[in-house]
Amino acid sequence: MVKQALLISYTFIAGLTLLVQADERPNILWLTSEDNSVNWIGCYGNPHVNSPNIDQLAIEGFRYTHAYANAPVCAPSRSTWITGVHALSMGTHPMRSRYKIPHDLIKYYPDHLKTSGYYVGNYKKTDYNIGGRKDTECWDNSEKVDWDKLKNTQPFFQVINSGQSHESSAFGDFQKTKHSPKDTILRKYHPDLPSMRMNYAKYHDAIQRMDQAIGNALEQLEATGLADNTIVIYNSDHGGVMPRSKRFLFSSGIHCPLIIRIPEKYKELWPAEKPGMTVDRIVSYIDMPTTWLHITDTEIPAIMQGKTFLGKESQSERAFHFAFRTRMDERNENARAICDNQFLYIRNYMPYTPWMQPLNYLWKMKATQAWAEHVQSGKASKVEERFFEPKGWTEELYDMEKDPDSIDNLIDNPEYAEVIKHMRSNLRLWQEEVFDTGMLPESEMVRLAAQNNTTIFQVARDRSLYNLPQLLDAADLALEENETNLKALRSLLKSPDLGLRYWGIVGCFLLNDTQSAFTCLEDDSHEVRAIAGWLLLRSGNKKIGLQCLEQLLKENSYATLSVLNIMDWAGEYAKPLLPTVQALKLKNNEEKMQLYLLAKHEHKGADF
Q1: Please, which residues have CB within 8 angstroms of residue 200's CB and are 6 or more apart in sequence?
Q2: 400 CB contacts (<8 Å, ≥6 apart)?
Q3: Is there a contact between 484 and 511 (Cβ–Cβ < 8 Å)?
Q4: Kind of pairing, strands 255-261 and 62-68?
Q5: Who contacts 175 (Cβ-Cβ below 8 Å, separation ≥6)?
Q6: Residue closest to 582 by CA, chosen among 566, 600, 569, 570
Q7: CA–CA gap between residue 25 and residue 292 (Å, rounded)
């Protein structure tokens, strides 16, 4: 009986100890802002902005100097955040899409925190870009922050998103701003125009409002008496927000502020000797959910792809950060990036498109309009006009220390041959490691998933459906633009694999191989036929090229968005298709492209 009593006592004490330990785990307050790169925060070197609350947080915490978003736009970035799996790995990378993932395999990080005993709240932005599950389902509270509930339900994990710095805050009138248009540092690729300076000033005002919102949350935390046992994290969801930052893989689109304040009682988590210090290790946003689970003693599922960067047993610093961009709303694009502490390497899978494609939402900003008009007037410098022209470059390399605005492409400089080789090979390894789902046109991946009654995530892991190494090899071959590859590219056009045929026609397009286009006019893939039609259109076979593209439009092709994009890239060659375009009944992104094309060519359409 004595032994049994002792056993019960020990069991009770052990259980009580576990409860005490659970209560001692830190609360986490994650404060996020929208669309602002490091360039817009005072403690990161902007002398003209008012961000006293964030600056003070940096004094009290640790300021990370190399934190990067995996996608330069909100929905794919947040899709990556909520799962700890790259959106590019799941097929949720196209902006404004709701493709399903296998939710039985991929839980959201709040699910794991709840299992671990945390109360989880989010106010209020979700935008996870994932189908098959409501965005709010994973949270205990997705409404206004209930501070009393947090105080009485510890440990907690609370997200507060401040939307004051969102891109939309740079829209509209900018005649009366608190900040002076004279007091700003223009990016080297932006023309020095009154509208550009005034738009910068307007966004400085937005940053000040965002900073005040961050300050209000910190004051509430203090007033509730929770500051001493709460880790505070501040960062933006990606970079931005002036034109050629958000949505782009340059430093201005992915380099973000990250500040973490850790109370004295959790000093074992400090990433440096004392508060106020900077931390130079690379933090990739994919690392965040993994790290949040780690510092809360929550089991980390094997499917997560990040590395822990805080805590006693944090993992070694990553050598590289990886980023991606594909379709942005109505505009097709496809690129990848890899960077270390100094160099940024970008691989463009669509070198034939301009960087600055007219985009309905981006063109709402007067700075964008002014820049475009400046280029059209012929007054722009070579650097200023470059981004409105087809890229031409398959690869780009920038020294982010010497060239933070990413305007001096070093890709052809022999001094950097080893750097380029190293970046190129590591990017390829990463693409295979995460099962890059973006090596086929989006519409084809959607069809493959539907035809096989599965998700894009699972398609990418089935070599019989999606042979990624072969696709990457084919893309490399196509993008070389080497005449000696023509025989091999033509051979790809005969493959039963639609992906190999796609990259085959892309390679033939870049080499202007008209003969190959004729063999693809009846291809099963509408995306292949669209590229073939464009190739014929621009190479003197205008009638046949137009017929090919028109047929796709009239049959309501699944590649309609691609055809409409091609019409814009083809310019005057595509004007005969405008009556057909006008007759279409389209929605969403296709409708945006339809209206844009009609307005561009002044063909009885609504304004863009």
Answers
A1: 181, 184, 186, 242, 367
A2: 251, 255, 339, 342, 343, 344, 406
A3: no
A4: antiparallel
A5: 198
A6: 600
A7: 12
Round to whole Å and give the CA distance between 256 and 318.
Answer: 17
What does pTM read for this prediction? 0.95
End-to-end CA distance of the chain: 84
**Tokens in use for 459?**
């398609």
The widest CA-to-CA distance across the chain, in whole angstroms, is: 98
Q: H or E segment at 68?
A: strand 62-68
- Reduced to 3 states (helix: H, G, I; strand: E, B; else coil), residue 74 is helix
Q: Which amino acid is at 164?
A: Q
Q: Give the separation between CA 48 and CA 160, rounded to whole angstroms.
A: 26
pLDDT for 313 = 84
Q: Angle CA(66)–CA(72)–CA(74) in degrees, nearest 5?
A: 115
Q: What is the pLDDT of residues 281-317, one digit of tens each?
A: 999 999 999 999 999 999 999 999 999 999 988 899 9
Domains and CATH numbers, the chain: 25-171+205-300 (3.40.720.10), 440-600 (1.25.10.10)
Distance CA 73, CA 240 (A): 9
Phi, psi of 303 (to 5 degrees): -75, -20
Residue 57 pLDDT > 90 = yes
Has residue 540 got a pLDDT over 60? yes
Instruction: Let me know: does 474 contact 499? Beta carbons within 8 Å.
Output: yes
Distance CA 529, CA 546 (A): 11
Q: Where do the DSSP E strands lie in 286-433?
A: 321-325, 335-339, 343-348, 395-399
**Does residue 84 surpass a pLDDT of 50?**
yes
Task: Find where tokens 């780009």 sit.
Answer: 396
Instruction: Report whether 109 contacts 84 (CB < 8 A).
Output: yes
Exposure of 254 in the CB half-sphere (CA atoms within 13 A)? 31
CA distance 239 to 35: 5
- CA distances 588 to 65, 98, 329, 356, 577, Å, are 39, 13, 9, 21, 20
Q: Give tens-digit pLDDT for 90-116.
A: 999 999 999 999 999 999 999 999 999
Kindly report, residue by residue over 115-152, the tens digit of the pLDDT.
999 999 999 999 999 999 999 999 999 999 999 999 99
Cα separation values, 32 from 75, 160, 163, 238, 333, Å: 14, 6, 9, 10, 27
pLDDT at 548: 98
pLDDT of residue 602: 85
User: Using DSSP, how many helices (H) and how many strands (E) does the chain show?
Assistant: 23, 13
pLDDT of residue 20: 39
Contact 68, 285 (CB under 8 A): yes
pLDDT digits (tens, 9 = 90+) for 399-419: 999 999 999 999 999 999 999
